[in-house]
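Shipment paperwork, digital attachment
Item: protein structure file
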Amino acid sequence: MEKLINYKSDNINKLSIYLGSKKDSVLFKKNVNSNFYSKKKSEFFSKYKSRTYKSTIYRFNNNFYNHTLKKHYIVYNEKKIFDKRDNLLIISYKEIEKPFSDFSCQKNYHILEDFVTEFKINDEIILLFNENKKIKGIKLDIIINHNIDNTLNKIREILENLSIDSTYN
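Attachment content:
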Protein backbone atom coordinates (compact mmCIF):
# COMPACT_ATOMS: atom_id res chain seq x y z
CA MET A 1 0.00 0.00 0.00
CA GLU A 2 2.97 2.28 0.35
CA LYS A 3 2.90 2.54 -3.46
CA LEU A 4 -0.04 4.90 -2.98
CA ILE A 5 2.23 7.67 -1.71
CA ASN A 6 2.98 8.46 -5.39
CA TYR A 7 -0.70 8.79 -6.29
CA LYS A 8 -0.26 11.97 -8.35
CA SER A 9 2.38 10.53 -10.64
CA ASP A 10 0.30 7.34 -10.99
CA ASN A 11 -2.71 9.47 -11.99
CA ILE A 12 -5.15 7.92 -9.49
CA ASN A 13 -7.61 9.48 -7.07
CA LYS A 14 -9.64 6.48 -5.82
CA LEU A 15 -9.03 3.10 -4.31
CA SER A 16 -11.45 0.23 -3.73
CA ILE A 17 -10.63 -2.70 -1.46
CA TYR A 18 -12.87 -5.77 -1.60
CA LEU A 19 -12.91 -8.58 0.95
CA GLY A 20 -13.45 -12.08 -0.35
CA SER A 21 -11.35 -14.95 -1.61
CA LYS A 22 -9.01 -15.48 -4.53
CA LYS A 23 -10.28 -18.31 -6.77
CA ASP A 24 -7.22 -18.43 -9.04
CA SER A 25 -4.81 -15.98 -10.67
CA VAL A 26 -7.68 -14.22 -12.50
CA LEU A 27 -10.91 -14.66 -10.53
CA PHE A 28 -11.77 -13.13 -7.16
CA LYS A 29 -14.97 -14.00 -5.27
CA LYS A 30 -16.36 -10.85 -3.57
CA ASN A 31 -18.47 -12.81 -1.12
CA VAL A 32 -17.95 -13.20 2.63
CA ASN A 33 -19.46 -15.60 5.16
CA SER A 34 -22.91 -14.46 6.44
CA ASN A 35 -21.97 -14.78 10.12
CA PHE A 36 -18.76 -12.79 9.63
CA TYR A 37 -20.70 -10.16 7.63
CA SER A 38 -23.35 -9.73 10.35
CA LYS A 39 -20.82 -9.66 13.18
CA LYS A 40 -18.60 -7.03 11.56
CA LYS A 41 -21.56 -4.94 10.46
CA SER A 42 -22.88 -4.77 14.04
CA GLU A 43 -19.40 -3.84 15.34
CA PHE A 44 -19.24 -0.87 12.96
CA PHE A 45 -22.79 0.24 13.92
CA SER A 46 -21.53 0.94 17.43
CA LYS A 47 -18.52 2.97 16.19
CA TYR A 48 -19.62 5.04 13.16
CA LYS A 49 -22.60 6.84 11.68
CA SER A 50 -24.36 4.84 9.02
CA ARG A 51 -27.05 5.04 6.39
CA THR A 52 -28.83 2.26 4.56
CA TYR A 53 -30.19 2.51 1.02
CA LYS A 54 -30.88 0.56 -2.16
CA SER A 55 -28.20 1.29 -4.73
CA THR A 56 -28.70 0.95 -8.49
CA ILE A 57 -25.64 1.44 -10.69
CA TYR A 58 -25.77 1.35 -14.48
CA ARG A 59 -22.54 0.59 -16.34
CA PHE A 60 -21.75 1.10 -20.00
CA ASN A 61 -18.05 0.50 -20.84
CA ASN A 62 -16.12 2.64 -18.33
CA ASN A 63 -19.09 4.98 -17.69
CA PHE A 64 -21.10 4.55 -14.50
CA TYR A 65 -24.34 6.14 -13.37
CA ASN A 66 -25.34 5.75 -9.74
CA HIS A 67 -29.09 6.28 -9.86
CA THR A 68 -29.40 6.49 -6.07
CA LEU A 69 -26.79 9.25 -5.72
CA LYS A 70 -27.61 10.85 -9.12
CA LYS A 71 -23.91 10.70 -9.99
CA HIS A 72 -22.30 9.98 -13.37
CA TYR A 73 -18.59 9.21 -13.44
CA ILE A 74 -15.98 7.74 -15.73
CA VAL A 75 -13.24 5.40 -14.54
CA TYR A 76 -9.77 5.60 -16.12
CA ASN A 77 -6.41 4.03 -15.46
CA GLU A 78 -7.81 1.08 -13.50
CA LYS A 79 -5.13 -1.17 -11.99
CA LYS A 80 -5.19 -4.14 -9.67
CA ILE A 81 -2.73 -3.92 -6.81
CA PHE A 82 -1.80 -7.42 -5.73
CA ASP A 83 -1.60 -7.90 -2.00
CA LYS A 84 0.16 -10.69 -0.14
CA ARG A 85 -3.19 -11.59 1.45
CA ASP A 86 -5.43 -13.66 -0.82
CA ASN A 87 -8.57 -12.31 0.83
CA LEU A 88 -8.18 -8.76 -0.57
CA LEU A 89 -8.71 -7.35 -4.04
CA ILE A 90 -7.31 -3.83 -4.31
CA ILE A 91 -8.14 -1.66 -7.32
CA SER A 92 -6.75 1.84 -7.93
CA TYR A 93 -8.24 4.16 -10.53
CA LYS A 94 -8.91 7.72 -11.63
CA GLU A 95 -12.54 8.76 -11.27
CA ILE A 96 -13.83 11.81 -13.11
CA GLU A 97 -17.30 13.09 -12.36
CA LYS A 98 -19.46 14.18 -15.29
CA PRO A 99 -22.94 15.72 -15.57
CA PHE A 100 -25.50 12.92 -15.32
CA SER A 101 -27.08 14.14 -18.56
CA ASP A 102 -23.91 13.00 -20.38
CA PHE A 103 -24.51 9.35 -19.49
CA SER A 104 -25.06 7.16 -22.55
CA CYS A 105 -28.64 6.32 -23.47
CA GLN A 106 -27.73 2.80 -24.61
CA LYS A 107 -30.11 0.05 -23.60
CA ASN A 108 -27.56 -2.71 -22.95
CA TYR A 109 -26.30 -1.61 -19.54
CA HIS A 110 -24.84 -3.86 -16.93
CA ILE A 111 -27.07 -3.10 -13.91
CA LEU A 112 -25.97 -3.73 -10.33
CA GLU A 113 -28.60 -3.50 -7.59
CA ASP A 114 -27.55 -3.81 -3.95
CA PHE A 115 -28.85 -3.03 -0.50
CA VAL A 116 -26.05 -1.00 1.03
CA THR A 117 -25.18 -0.06 4.59
CA GLU A 118 -22.62 2.71 4.41
CA PHE A 119 -20.33 3.72 7.28
CA LYS A 120 -18.48 7.01 6.93
CA ILE A 121 -15.15 6.44 8.68
CA ASN A 122 -13.77 9.90 7.83
CA ASP A 123 -13.73 12.31 4.86
CA GLU A 124 -11.60 9.93 2.79
CA ILE A 125 -12.88 6.46 3.77
CA ILE A 126 -16.31 4.87 3.39
CA LEU A 127 -16.97 1.27 4.41
CA LEU A 128 -19.78 -0.44 2.48
CA PHE A 129 -21.64 -3.62 3.45
CA ASN A 130 -23.43 -4.78 0.26
CA GLU A 131 -26.19 -7.37 -0.02
CA ASN A 132 -27.29 -8.66 -3.41
CA LYS A 133 -29.64 -11.68 -3.33
CA LYS A 134 -27.61 -14.29 -1.42
CA ILE A 135 -24.25 -12.54 -1.83
CA LYS A 136 -22.85 -10.40 0.97
CA GLY A 137 -19.79 -8.27 0.39
CA ILE A 138 -17.61 -5.77 2.22
CA LYS A 139 -15.86 -2.96 0.39
CA LEU A 140 -13.75 0.04 1.35
CA ASP A 141 -13.97 3.10 -0.92
CA ILE A 142 -11.08 5.50 -0.42
CA ILE A 143 -10.35 8.94 -1.81
CA ILE A 144 -6.63 9.34 -2.46
CA ASN A 145 -5.44 12.88 -1.75
CA HIS A 146 -2.88 14.93 0.20
CA ASN A 147 -3.94 13.20 3.43
CA ILE A 148 -2.73 9.79 2.22
CA ASP A 149 -0.39 9.18 5.20
CA ASN A 150 -3.22 9.41 7.74
CA THR A 151 -5.57 7.53 5.42
CA LEU A 152 -3.15 4.58 5.12
CA ASN A 153 -2.95 4.29 8.92
CA LYS A 154 -6.75 4.20 9.19
CA ILE A 155 -7.00 1.65 6.34
CA ARG A 156 -4.53 -0.63 8.14
CA GLU A 157 -6.58 -0.36 11.34
CA ILE A 158 -9.84 -1.22 9.53
CA LEU A 159 -8.28 -4.14 7.62
CA GLU A 160 -6.84 -5.50 10.83
CA ASN A 161 -10.33 -5.41 12.35
CA LEU A 162 -11.79 -7.13 9.26
CA SER A 163 -9.13 -9.78 8.65
CA ILE A 164 -9.96 -13.19 10.03
CA ASP A 165 -8.87 -15.61 7.31
CA SER A 166 -11.03 -18.52 8.46
CA THR A 167 -14.27 -16.55 7.99
CA TYR A 168 -14.17 -16.20 4.21
CA ASN A 169 -16.05 -18.46 1.78
